[in-house]
Amino acid sequence: MSSEEVFNRIAVLRAERGISRRDLATALGVHYQTVGYLERGEYSPSLYLALRIAEYFEVPVEVVFSLKPFPRLGSRS
Amino acid sequence: MRSRWQRYQREALEKDMAPAAYATRARRRVIAGLAAFSVALLWVDAAVSWFLAPSDLAVTINFVLLAIMLVIYLPAVTLLNVASRGTAALPARMLDERQAAERLRAVATGHRITFGLIGLALAAVVAGTWGEGDTARIPAAAVFILLLAIWLTHLVMPLIIVGWRMPDPVPDEDDERDEHDDA
């Protein structure tokens, strides 16, 4: 696992809002597989793309991306 | 005209062609290996031409090797292009940042490999003609095929590297939904 790994909640946000991978990819102007690789943590986006993703979901960027794993839903931390 | 062709190319590369053939990393690596093997046949062909040309035997071996090469090369390169969705084939403006970065990495690695191969070819030519001075001769067929081998290697190496490195693609949600519907 890379020490430069960036964790994200794109899949959660996408599922919560009922947006398909293709719709998100089209809105961001990227290939739908790129969204998949982002969700699987196999690709870390540029700052520009990260900001655009946060803007798309209308949340601050730190809600979508983190250097530490996000706590699981229902966990106390 | 050109942009229409590029759009057509992009759409064609989004359509799966024998998806089982490149569904896993191991299979994509086999295809990448076959593409590399087919290009290596051209290098072998150049060496054969050096020793045997001009002769009927050299012509026969040339055609046989070229035929085998094309039979392997064309499907392998097509499958790698489809598997990578044109990462190494489409113009940069049609790629997103991940694909562009992947292509840059592959081109840089491919450049180093091609650089090494050209160095080896140069060393082979120097070694093969050493001490012959002004009378040194290389058959034109060998020169032509060697240049063809260098050109094709340079062209296809980034694609081979992209195919070799590519992680397993994320299943399309439409396909996943279809599978659920079938179940």
From TrEMBL, chain A:
Keyword DNA-binding: yes
Key words, A-Z: DNA-binding
HTH cro/C1-type domain residues: 10-64
GO MF terms, alphabetically ordered: DNA binding
Gene3D superfamilies in the record: lambda repressor-like DNA-binding domains
PROSITE patterns reported for this sequence: HTH_CROC1 (PS50943)
Protein name: Transcriptional regulator
Naturally occurring in which organism (per UniProt): Bailinhaonella thermotolerans
UniProtKB/TrEMBL annotation, chain B:
Keywords carried by this UniProt record: Membrane, Transmembrane, Transmembrane helix
Residue spans crossing the bilayer: 30-53, 59-83, 104-126, 138-162
Membrane as UniProt keyword: yes
Protein name (database record): Uncharacterized protein
